[in-house]
Amino acid sequence: MKNKPRLLLTVIALLLMVNGASAANDQAQLNAQEQKVIDYLVKDWGEDYSVTSVDIAMNAVKVAPSDETRFRIGNYIKVHPELHEVIRRWGWVTLVLTPDEKLIARAVINAEREAKPAPSVSELTIAVGVKEPEVMRGLAMLERYEILKKDDKAGGVGYAVIPRYIKWQPRLDFVFHKISLDRGRQFNVN
Questions:
Q1: Helices marked H in 45-181 — which ranges?
Q2: 41-60, pLDDT tens digit by residue?
Q3: What is the pTM assigned to this prediction?
Q4: Alpha-carbon span 125 to 69, nearest angstrom
Q5: What is the C-alpha separation between 134 and 129, in angstroms, rounded?
Q6: How crowded is residue 113: how many other Cβ atoms within 10 Å of its Cβ?
Q7: DSSP classification of residue 147
């Protein structure tokens, strides 16, 4: 009996060490370009009430636009809310999704929240103002970020909302305004 608490403490200590190593490994997985984007964001957040998103930061530091790069940076932000108060205040979703992805998410989530039929791809192309490939790419990114999930029973676009986002504060993470200053700086505000 006396060994059980000691064994339990040992297991807990090992889990904490593995978890700490995993967090350090996450940071090591960012390449120099991705870290450059993170550094830019941390410096920029909060200036002029900015809630600058990853896509704008990538453009500012001249990192080639890529869903894969944005996804890696987005996941890093998601698991590291300690980087800045803006992440904790506005949520990682606000920072990592593009404007088109936010509009697609808003349309699908609001339809499900309001018990309306899920929008079709053609309805989303009209609502968002993009072509079908961009809608499909946006849906795929929303699935990767675990905001939507493929569901054959969902109708419309064939995606259902992850339950957490149905009850999410209406539109909070999906509201955005892009600001462009005369000196060339761009950022988002909510």
A1: 54-60, 67-79, 85-90, 92-96, 99-113, 121-128, 132-144, 163-166
A2: 999 997 777 889 999 999 99
A3: 0.77
A4: 25
A5: 10
A6: 15
A7: S
C-alpha to C-alpha distance for 139 and 77, rounded to whole angstroms: 20
- Report d(CA 110, CA 73) in Å as an integer: 27
- Tell whether 41 is covered by a domain: no
In a domain, 161, yes or no: yes
Residue-wise pLDDT for 159-169, tens only, equals 999 998 887 66
Residue 184: inside a domain: no
Residue 108 structural domain = 99-177
- pLDDT of 178 over the 80 cut: no
Q: What is the CATH number of the domain that holds 129?
A: 1.10.10.10
Structurally, how many domains does the chain consist of?
1
In a domain, 136, yes or no: yes
115 backbone dihedrals φ, ψ, rounded to 5°: 55, 35
Burial zone of 105 (CB within 10 Å; 0-12 exposed, 13-18 middle, 19+ buried): buried
* 137-166 as b/e: b if 16+ CB within 10 A: bbbebbeebebbeeeeebebbbbbbbeebe
